């Protein structure tokens, strides 16, 4: 089947499928005239990649997971470690986002939100409060 059919069946845009081929994640067969010819197995691999990417795995992680998926002699602990490392990265990102939210909430509460030009939010982004800047001058 062609890339359009593969896109429809896998749920991925044709551009993404071509990119995955370019970086070596998939290798569809070629017809005599050079056109890509996606098999049912290719569609299954594309769906696997779509799901892995939707779970937030990086391209490198997807490459490792795909290799493990295709290796029937794999050890499940290898797969588990990749997934566990990803969870740890997600947890770190959640902590970072919570910290950003807390900082922004504090700055929003400090902002009068009126017609005055002073703004604690902008002052913080600029590296300090207006009072701190006056002392440095």
From TrEMBL:
InterPro entries, sorted: CueR, DNA-bd_dom_put_sf, MerR-type_HTH_dom, MerR_fam, Tscrpt_reg_MerR_DNA-bd
Domain of life: Bacteria
Gene3D superfamilies: 1.10.1660.10
HTH merR-type domain ranges (all copies): 1-68
UniProt keyword terms in alphabetical order: Cytoplasm, DNA-binding, Transcription, Transcription regulation
Subcellular localization: Cytoplasm
Name of the featured protein: Cu(I)-responsive transcriptional regulator
Origin species: Mesorhizobium montanum
């Amino acid at each position: 089947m062609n890339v359009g059919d593969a896109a429809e069946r896998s749920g991925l845009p044709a551009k993404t499928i071509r990119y995955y081929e370019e970086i070596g994640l998939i290798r569809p067969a070629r017809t005599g005239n050079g056109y890509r010819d996606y098999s049912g197995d290719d569609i299954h691999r594309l769906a696997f990649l779509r799901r892995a990417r939707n779970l937030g795995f990086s391209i490198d992680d997807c490459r490792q997971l795909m290799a493990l998926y295709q290796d029937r002699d794999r050890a499940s602990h290898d797969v588990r470690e990749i997934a566990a490392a990803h969870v740890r990265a997600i947890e770190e990102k959640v902590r970072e986002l919570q910290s950003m939210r807390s900082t922004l909430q504090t700055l929003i509460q400090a902002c009068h939100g009126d017609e005055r030009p002073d703004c604690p939010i902008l002052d913080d982004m600029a590296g300090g409060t207006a009072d701190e800047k006056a002392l440095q001058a």
